[in-house]
Structure formats: structure tokens, C-alpha cells
Amino acid sequence: MAELASRRIDDALAALAISRDPSAAGVASALTAATAASLTELTAALAAGRLDDAATGDIARQRALAERAAELRPMLLEAADEDLSAYGAVASATDESARVLALERAAEPPAAIAGWSAELAEAAAETAEAAREWPFHPDAVTAAHLAAAAARSAAMLVAANLGDDSSDPRLGRAREATERADAAAARTAGTASA
Q: Which of 85-100 are b and which e, b meaning 16 or more Cβ less than 10 Å from the residue's Cβ?
């Protein structure tokens, strides 16, 4: 798989299905989170544009959320490439000690994805709260749920890569990210409009 940032969506998704490149779950988590970042950027920017001028603090906050989401999107795409490379090292390990070391290193990209996904879920939930009455509200809710799913998936990969090493701080951070993301997505349940 070439760098994901330069691929078309259909090419990237087709590349996930190639059996000789088995690191699909980390890449899928990153792509899901990057999609959430796009929706968060969009909805926060729209919310900033619609908020009353008297709510300048809220406007600034929504703009900041949009800017941070825009920063996270390319970072997530880069993490997808890093995950692909890291898991490639696992697949090509020649003995058990090399495999264990490669798995330890392969835990880093999904740990980052989990943390950034939690940040996005919280941002999207905040925007969903501000956008309750506006037509793009479901987009913010969707962003929160996509980010939460990405956090859960990435955290599962951290655990799978680290195995029984519960002392590794990345495992705790990934679990905490999942809890934060799930809580943020759950907050949007009461704001959903059908």
C-alpha cells in the first residue's frame, strides 16, 4: 500500500482487502478517525459561523475545535502509514524475539490513533451540543460515533500487540481514550435528531 494521504478513497479501501498486507485494522481505524476529523472540522466551522455574535467565547471555541480537527486529519493518515510499516515488520520477523519486539513497536501507531480519536469524539460531542437546532447536527453526532469506534478499534490493537504486558503505559492510555471517546459519543445520544 502506498502512502494513504496520496491515494483515492476507493484505492485505499481496496488496498485494505489485499491479503498480503494484513495490517488492515490499524489502517481502518486511522481512516475512520480521519473521517471523523473531517466531519468535526466541518461541523465546528459551521457552528462557529452560526453562533450569535454575543457568544464570542463559543465562536472562538468552535473555531479552535475546527482547527484542531484539521490538524489531526493528516496526522491520522500518517499514523495509518506508520501502522502499515510497523505491522509489516511484525509479518517479516524471522524469529520469536524479533516478532515480540516488532509487536511492541507496532503498538505505538494505534495508541496514537486511540488518543487522537478520543480527542475528536469529545470535540464532536461538544459541537453536537452547540448545533442541536441546526441541520448539520447529525454530522457532528456521526463524527463522535466514528471517532469512538476508531478509539475502540485502535485500543484493541494496542492490547493485541502488547499481549499480556499490562504494565505498558500505552495500554492504559488506550483504554482511557476508549472510555473518554465512548462517554463523548454517549453524550450525543440525547442530542440526536432523526
A: ebbbebeeeeeeeebb
